[in-house]
Amino acid sequence: MIIQSTHVWLNEEFKPAQIEIEEGKIKAIYPYQEKKADEDAGELWILPGFIDIHTHGWNKADTNKPVLEDIRRWSKHMPQEGVTSYLATTSTQSKEDNLKAFPILKEAIENQSEGAEMIGINVEGNYIDMTCRGAQNKDYIVKPDADELLEYQRLSGNHILTVTCAVEHDENYEFTRKVSDAGIRVSLGHSGASFDECKKAVENGASGVTHCGNGMSRFHHREPGIFGAALNLEELYAEVIGDGIHVHFETAHLIGMMKGKDKLILVTDSAEQKDDPDYAKYNTIGAFRLEDGTLFGSALYVNKGVDNLHRKARLPLVTAINAATINPAKYLGFDHRKGTLEAGKDADIVICNEHIEIKQVYCKGVKQF
């Protein structure tokens, strides 16, 4: 099958081109109109499929208490947002509940059918700071424990790809070093760590920052802290929730301009209440809050987040697109098969207009939306 458009995102710019799809992969990229096209998208944009590495659920699908039927509904929904790959993200809960959840998520990953591909697991709890916990359950916060996480990793079938850690509680950076050596990316977050503590964590293997601007001590001109580390340390990828609620769009602009086109990652941090009709009356601003006003998740769609980063946060289009495509793919080590439109990669393709309104989505060459 061949699809074409006058606006195909290749090498970080739009070019007229054709994409040939075969057996779920991109077989080749051709000059525009070189071959007979099976589908002509006209002037619509053709982008790589979006990747959301930090999402907790959707419409009663909850990664902390996963049910396979709900996870499959969630995966089928994701292409409506332009998402073709995602990480199921857990938050702080009891060890007993974690021991139950990871084997179910393993089964969900290893027995997938329709919709977006769940490519792994993101562990946001339990190794966080009490003061910077946000809405996470204080009763189950524990000191960073590498052996415990690696136990979860075995239960998950080695599908845990990233973990959040308050590194100020990581004695001698043993957790950071040990789990990084095991191939799990350590993301600084829900933390009051100083700039120097963050820098030492990077030296011991940390490589990301969880929802930059949220769940962390405030920036101060004499102590830049984790926010300053996120912006200034080139080694760190920085997540940003692109809804304008979790961080002001001008703050998102600052984060994006400092990280540049290669180290910003758009995330939703979406909650299971997203699109749940039982919670619709509580979602009046596009996010969810506890009774005390604490934010606990967004209702953001990824395609809207891309448009927001470009139009409302005033970031270059290449930065906004990369934040949802090649940057998360590189961070996770999946750029050999996802993140760009190249021969040999998965045929994960988004067709949209200039406002990133989704028209069609292909997941591994299969039209899903």
Notable characteristics:
eight-stranded mixed sheet; 27% helix; TIM Barrel; 369 residues; alpha/beta; single chain
Structure overview:
With 369 residues, the chain is α/β, with parallel strands linked by helices. The protein is built from 10 helices and 20 strands. The protein folds into 2 domains: 2-45 and 351-367, no CATH class; 50-338, Metal-dependent hydrolases (TIM Barrel, Alpha-Beta Barrel). It has helices at 68-77, 95-110, 146-155, 174-181, 195-203, 225-232, 249-259, 302-312, 317-324, 326-332; strands spanning 2-10, 13-22, 25-31, 39-40, 45-48, 50-55, 57-58, 61-62, 83-90, 117-123, 160-165, 185-188, 208-209, 237-241, 264-267, 287-289, 295-298, 349-352, 358-363, 366-367. The strands form 4 sheets. Strands 1, 2, 3, 4, 5, 18, 19 and 20 form an 8-stranded mixed β-sheet that branches. The longest helix has 16 residues, at 95-110. The two termini are 17 Å apart.
Concise account of the structure shown:
This protein is an alpha/beta fold and 369 residues long. The protein has helices spanning 68-77, 95-110, 146-155, 174-181, 195-203, 225-232, 249-259, 302-312, 317-324, 326-332; strands at 2-10, 13-22, 25-31, 39-40, 45-48, 50-55, 57-58, 61-62, 83-90, 117-123, 160-165, 185-188, 208-209, 237-241, 264-267, 287-289, 295-298, 349-352, 358-363, 366-367.
